[in-house]
Amino acid sequence: xxFEFIQLTPVASDIEQLGTxxxxxxxxxxxxxxxxxxxxSRAETGEHWSEKCAAEICHLLGIPHAExxxxxxxxxxxxxxxxxxxGEFRMVMGNEVLHSSSTDYPEPFQQEGKPVRVREHTVPxxxxxxxxxxxxxxxxxxxxxxxNAADVxxxxxxxxxxxxxxxxxxxxxxxxxxxxxxxxxLCPTYDHAASLGREMLDSERDERLNTKDQNRQxxxxxxxxxSELFKTKTDKKPLSTVEAFRQAVEGRDAAQRHWIAxxxxxxxxxxxxxxxxVPDECISESARRFATLMVMENRKRLIENDYS
Length: 308
Hints:
The chain has 308 residues and is an alpha+beta fold. Helices cover 35% and strands 15% of the residues. The protein folds into two domains: 78 residues, Phosphorylase Kinase, domain 1 (2-Layer Sandwich), CATH 3.30.200; 224 residues, Phosphatidylinositol 3-kinase Catalytic Subunit, Chain A, Domain 5 (Orthogonal Bundle).
């Protein structure tokens, strides 16, 4: 069945505008008390369908994730997501976590509303931080038996490689802190809209889908996807998304076996269905086909250990 496409008419008094950002909190009248967030999709992008499809792929792989639904308000596309924070919990972003545990990690800082890329945001540092016994895996209905928080984060990096998500910066992962008990849990993964070639114009998609130039085809295109994680703090460029996953699972046999097994069980039919279920008014046929083939190519690379 097609994904639900919600036409949202929020009550003005319920809207809490978040400064100049293109999103706002609102409350459903007949649903739970927790607020929901509406995130506008920028013009000429597919941020709404890419976010939704990424969440559905998370579900198929058993990766704890934020829930998203495609929505529209005031004639503009976006997604809605329920707040993951309730009760005495608060979210502590990755940069705060790393700064508190590493003497040389820069203090949390933003420039013009955008996270600052820092070379200290390395795979070994993040994995070592999440390996601490004080940080637990996310609370989830998915099978995470035998995995610690760092192992689950490896699943997040596999997702990034699969969908070519290039936005795993140090504010796009977090821990949940229970202020009453002091317990800490890795937060479910969130914010995956910078993926699946969603920013590409259909004219370029069509050209890449039909060209005989191998340098323009999808296998070459997906190899350009870069993470926001570095191998070492002296590196000038961040790792590719696939290299980041490889670095994370190196020497972590349980995590590698778990996530690759999940990936092997993800069939091409299931991948195709995810994109078929996006309502026609929300995605073009070129975008649907291109994103499907991207995921299939990345799945093949990961299973075959093709880290080029």
